[in-house]
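User: My collaborator sent over this chain with a note saying "see what the structure looks like." That's all I know about it. Can you take a look?
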Amino acid sequence: MQPLFSVQQSRGLDDYAINKLNYPSLLLMENAANSIFTKIVKYNPELGPSDRIGIICGKGNNAGDGFALARICVAKGVAVQLLCLYDESELSPDSFTNFNILKALESKILNIKRFTSVKDLSIFKDCTIIVDAILGTGAQGPLVEPLKSIVEKLNSMEAFKVAADVPTGLNADTGFGDTVFEADLTVSLGTLKRGLFIGRGYEYAGIVELGFIGVDYDWVSYRFTDFLIEKHDIPYIFPVKKKTVNKYSAGKVLTIGGSGRYVGAAEFTAFSAMKVGAGASVLAVPASVKNNFNRFPELVLQPYPDNDYPWLSADAVDSLEKSIEWADVITVGPGLGREEDTIEAVVYLLSKFTSKVFVIDADALFALSKAGVKKLMLKNSILTPHLGEFELLSGVPLSELEQDLLRAGRQFTKSFGPCLVLKNPKTIMFTPSGEAFVNNVGNQGLAKFGSGDVLTGIIAGVAAQKTNPRFANMDLGVAVLASIYLHGFAGDLLREKSTEYGFTATDIIKILPKAIKKLVKE
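Assistant: Without extra context I'll predict from the sequence alone. Here is the result:
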């Protein structure tokens, strides 16, 4: 599991190396430039004299990385077109040093140009690679002119685009930005910046590689709150089945979902729980429409009385009391509907059985938003909203959520106590203690009807196996971490098999056993 750094933490590591260890700052810059060059070659293995690299530099230390990179490229025989946005008198001290070394080279394969207008970007027209070394972690608000127009022009160019540390225009803390350099590759120098993995950072950073600069985060005593979930974490936290397990000790899941209008969602959830190892999965549905729920014969149906109104009511909750007490985990919400009776029933259910573990999704989240989350004890609950549902739950407008998703998720879980799974292009899990775990797998193909219902079932199925020895003394968050990674990993297997366009929720369910085998057994 990799820690994700704030800008302040990243700068603190540099300061520690320079001021406490007497590590030369120019050496940090040299190491950064070498790392960038190494990563460029990794993704462009045929790089050679026939190529041209365009490098655009600002005035801070990020520019110094660019100047040092230009020198390394020239030394390797690769032609460089260098565009300097500022006068050398404005450069930071280390950048100034590297710029002067570069000027002294007087190489025939190096062209240095001082920026006067956006038209100057035409020097990059024959470049196969363009490197952004303008701002790095310096972006805090919207880009102003001429930077905005410069980035827009760079984005329109056909080349392999590389960001040195952070794409210009992206807030490295929040992942937000109005106009952002659209990189194919970002070399995050020294530390992984959290903004590269969330919000627009995920869209615009491209492939993110960690660039070694000669220092290690273990040298400082930081309390990290943000982490990137990685493949090698999963074998240590995924449940292991005892040889003496039976269908009940393997985990009991009750899904309260489905209605006369919606059938598939609840079935996907209940069946997914079994596909990840739960031994007993019961689906509670309205009695008048029970015959509609016949997709998976492995599921046990429990019809509840509905008086020919095919949705959940408070009376139905009372009739399910024995099943609720029986279950290790209860999922509520998929396909439930939004009738007033159902909203009241969900609130009644969560108020009455506060000691039970609930995975709350879909229409049950809508009911929570209507009733107000403050009224309920949610400390044993796992909430799984997408951004639109989280907007309703939190009361924070979507435009504000997008500007700082980590802060909003943290505030919500600290205030109300649940484990929050924020479904997003990079799904994030928030704990009540203020930690955030960003999923590092998954793709656009998961943005389909039913995909979220499968994730809910995976979470319930894994969490229901909490009696497993590996879960001893661990909270529900461990099960959630394994679940969200498994869901994304399954999506990636399906993309490898075909593309991100064609797979469905049914395909995700079918490939879950293979995904588990690859993650845990291999």
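A starting point for your reply to your collaborator: DSSP finds 18 helices and 18 strands in the chain.
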